Amino acid sequence: MKINFYILIYILIIFIISSKTLQSKNFGDLTKQKPIEMNIQLNGKIGEMHFFSPNILIFKTGKLYKLKIINTSKSKHYFSSSNFSKSIFTRKIQINKNDEKVAEVKGNISEIEVFPNNEVEWWFVPIKTGEFDDLICSVKDLQTNKKHSEMGMVGKIIIE
Questions:
Q1: What is the pLDDT of residue 67?
Q2: pLDDT averages per 10-residue partition of the chain, 160 residues
Q3: Is 147:100 a contact under the CB 8 Å cutoff?
């Protein structure tokens, strides 16, 4: 009986040590994960309408994302959500041209401006859950002088 008890204790110790090792491998540097790639397009037609596509983005805490923000229109656009930017850790903003990296920006980001027919990559890890319906573009339309958000360029970001 004593031998079975010691074998059981030995097995439990090995199990505890191995599970701690697995946990430390899974919960290391969250910014070094393989990123989940997502795209959002900044669309519009000057004088008519402007919009995000999709206009709802859903992320999960603790995952690394590479969000490509792609401006397909002839006007510049902002991707701006102060509540979202306060709920993530930004690893970097990467600017590419012709599939080559041109620059990286690091630090806290609250708004990104993307010029016509260009794109940027926002690498981040969500750290706080919430629903943020303050995604807007506050650029003024060149013909109507209305903000793009007044012409439909609004969205919602959900972090689960």
A1: 98
A2: 67 66 58 92 96 98 97 96 95 88 89 94 96 97 96 97
A3: no
Number of C-beta neighbours around residue 56 at 10 A: 13
The Cα–Cα gap between 72 and 96 comes to 15
Does 30-159 carry CATH code 3.20.80.10?
no
The pLDDT of residue 160 is 97
Whether the pTM exceeds 0.90: the reply is no
Got the DSSP string for 83-120?
HHHTTEEEEEEEEEETTEEEEEE-S--SEEEE-TT-EE
Q: What angle do CA 37, 42, 82 make, to 5 degrees?
A: 75
The β-bridge relationship of strands 111-114 and 77-80 is antiparallel
Q: What ranges do the domains of the chain cover?
A: 30-159
Alpha-carbon radius of gyration of the chain: 22
- Calpha distance 82→48 (Å, rounded): 26
Q: Exposure of 153 by Cβ count < 10 A (0-12 exposed, 13-18 middle, 19+ buried)?
A: buried
C-alpha distances in Å from residue 52, one per residue of 6, 77, 118: 63, 10, 15
CA 55 to CA 25: how far, in whole Å?
A: 35
